[in-house]
Amino acid sequence: MVNRIIDFSSKNSFFVFGARGTGKTHLLKQRYARENNWYIDLLDPELARKYLLTPSALLQELAAKKQVPEWIIIDEVQKAPALLDIVHKQIEATKQKFILSGSSARKLKRGAANLLAGRAFVYNLFPLTAKEMGVEFDLEEALNWGTLPKLLEYDNPTDKKEYLRAYASTYLREEILQEQIIRNLEPFHRFLSVAAQMGSKVINYSKIAQDTGASVPTVQSYFQILEDTLLGFTLPQFHESIRKRQRANPKFYFFDSGVQRALAEELNTTLTPRTFHYGHVFEQFVINEIYRLQSYYRKDYRLSYILTGAGVEIDLIIERPGLKRAAVEIKSATTVAQGDLKSLLTLGKDIPDCELFCLSNDPVPKVIENVHCLPWQTGLIELGL
Question: Which residues in the chain land under pLDDT 50?
């Protein structure tokens, strides 16, 4: 059994958001399936229809219970968003504790749903981290197939490919088409493929618009959809000035390498160590690990990247409250040498109050000049994760 790192409040109502397949339902049942709790699964179409038509039925059923539940868990609450008005009133009137899960807040906001005005905390759930998988973690498997929990049930590559292909098509069908986030699905379908192929590179909105037959504002809205539905996140370019950060185009990282490879139609291409593509996917994996762990541990780290006009790049800048900044270069190499650190050594000295790190597959920790070269697992710990 995988023990998830995420730590929910025991005193306060909260939302749990996460893309499909990240394990929200399983986790909530695992932690809260007790007699003194009430679990409402709105993936049941009859239940969803009942509460959609008559939200007050929740109060009537609650009043009929012999014992007031410690927690009321409403899974996939976006299926009946009017329930949130009832939830709000109950929190105010009785201090009842609620857990509200869904694939994103976007649908709730789009429907002008009540997001409880800060009365409920917000947590995001992601695919499994290496730390959560423990001895079951295998780097090659993670890079090739990603770490969605369902993949642990499959033993062979064929089943994993089919699951990831189905996941990609299910997302298109259910999350986008049925929820009517966009009206014309075909350009978005093309956009997903192009965006997946360009993942972790600086976003060229004009080029993607040209390749997908959509306008630049439409492409920008598509990336916003991916962020809002927790299928990825943007990494801004580092600058001391917040305004200048906002002007520069960000990078985009899909939330899972397996899903990205499915969208890019790369599942039949095996990743080979010591190739450029392998290093590219490894970088995405490590940055995703950092993004997930800092979220779970509530670190409030600010992540960005550096890319100069001359093409000199640092993969990740981490601004850590109360600690020095960290400039991080990510290498898939099994042996790190000084030549791998040119960008860090060139640009690092110009970043004030900053420590320099190289995270890699090299098992031997070392310091080259002032760069801490560490195995990536050890490096995450040194970064406070």
Answer: 111-112, 242
How are beta strands 97-102 and 121-124 bridged, if at all? unpaired
Q: What are phi and psi of 288, to 5 degrees?
A: -65, -40
Q: Could you tell me the two tokens for 202? A: 């600086």
The tokens for 134 are 């423990």
Which residues does 11 contact at the CB level (< 8 Å), separation at least 6? Answer: 97
pLDDT of residue 174: 66
Q: On the CB side of 37, how many CA atoms lie within 13 Å of its CA?
A: 17
Question: What is the model's pTM?
Answer: 0.93
| Spatial CB neighbours of 199, under 8 Å, sequence gap ≥ 6 | 232, 252, 253, 254, 260, 264, 284
Q: How far apart are CA 5 and CA 327, in angstroms?
A: 25
CATH 3.40.50.300 applies to domain 14-124: yes
Sign of the torsion formed by the C-alpha atoms of 299, 302, 303 and 306: negative
Domain boundaries, the chain: 14-124, 130-228+239-278, 297-382
Q: What angle do CA 244, 247, 250 make, to 5 degrees?
A: 105
Q: Tokens 């539940």 appear where? A: 69
CATH top-level class for 297-382?
A: alpha beta
Domains 14-124 and 297-382 share a fold: no
pLDDT in tens, 196-220: 998 888 999 999 999 988 899 999 9
